Protein: ATP synthase subunit b, chloroplastic
Organism: Hanslia ormocarpoides
Amino acid sequence: MKNITDSFLCLGYWPFAGSFGFNTDILATNPINLSVVLGVLVFFGKGVLSDLLDNRKQRILRSIRNSEELREGAIEQLERAQARLRKVETEADRFRVNGYSEIEQEKRNLINSIYTTLEQLENYKNEAIHFEQQRVINQVRQRVLQQALQGALGTLNSCLNNELHLRTVNANIGMFGAMKEKKN
């Protein structure tokens, strides 16, 4: 067997031509085998590895583009939603302001209507009171006149005798006759 140091020093040691066999020197044969295997892998595996890397690169780029498109779509939707929100808030403020002013106007109209109704009721009450006063005054006048007439008739009947009665009737007839002649 050879010395290991001989193999390192004489890397170019090759068996003589004409002999075929296995080289059992591991240190001399491994780099050659490795270089052959690596060469074959690089030559044949380069295309497969390149295709795998290209496919992976395309998937990553597609994912990035899709993400960008989704992001832009989300930004557009957000802007539309914010614009809609601003519009709704503006309308709500306008309705709130108009609603308050309309409520105040309705309140004033209702108060004015109530005052007008109260004034009408006061006028109706005053008219009813005045009407009742006039009715009561007329009733009192009628009673007073009736009592005065009864008192006068009672006094006349007690004081009046036949002769005075005939004179009074004649005087009244004379007055009616004079009035009748004046009209004609």
About this structure: The first helix runs from residue 4 to 9. Residues 1-11 have pLDDT under 50 and may be disordered. Residues 40 and 48 are 13 Å apart (CA to CA).
